[in-house]
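User: Show me a protein chain along with its predicted structure.
Assistant: Here is one chain, sequence first, then structure tokens.
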Amino acid sequence: MSGTDPEGIRLNKYIASSGLCSRREADALIESGKVTVNGTVAVQGTKIKHGDTVEVSGKPVIPEDSMVYIAFNKPLGVTCTTDSRDPSNIVDYIRYKERIFPVGRLDKNSSGLILLTNDGSIVNKLLRAENGHEKEYIVTLNRPYDRNFLKEMESGVPVLGQLTLPCTLKPVNDKTFRIILHQGLNRQIRRMCDHLGYKVIKLKRIRFMNVILGDLAPGKWRYLTSEEKKDLLKDIT
């Protein structure tokens, strides 16, 4: 809320600025008693100041312009950590003007799409495997695979003491395939392939839920579009 009136902004404007609804719809939510400010049911005309907590039906409301959601095409060699002691850390690589952190991780020797944000409230929801959020990768192996490999990968492979969830594979050529996962175990794809006697020589993530890497160049980032943010946040509520 930097740059706003020191006396605060009206509650309906604050709610509308989050992208949740229009001011008129916000007024209706306030009238229905669904809006709280710092735990107290709000009334029309309430002013919101920096540090206030606004909730609608128990869910926090955050002004859209204060939240950052970034899609980054991580190159090989960049580490998905905020630890400044690691010279290859992703935060120093991007050098964004505010503190942001990655949603999950990609191995240092993997590339592709990773999201970064300053919205700590969504990170655990995005990463929670039981939510079934899709992640899509292009994988190249050290040698040609066969139908049995595809079948075993799709039905589940023992990894880290558990059987991986069913997934979807689509052949690209005799050594390369696309895979859609609904979970994110540590080095999962590499471990799955290792178990079946194959080595991954190239791994690139091309989609995270509704966000697609597209033609974003390696080492470059972009803000999520309003539609991407809307769909992303809708899918985790």
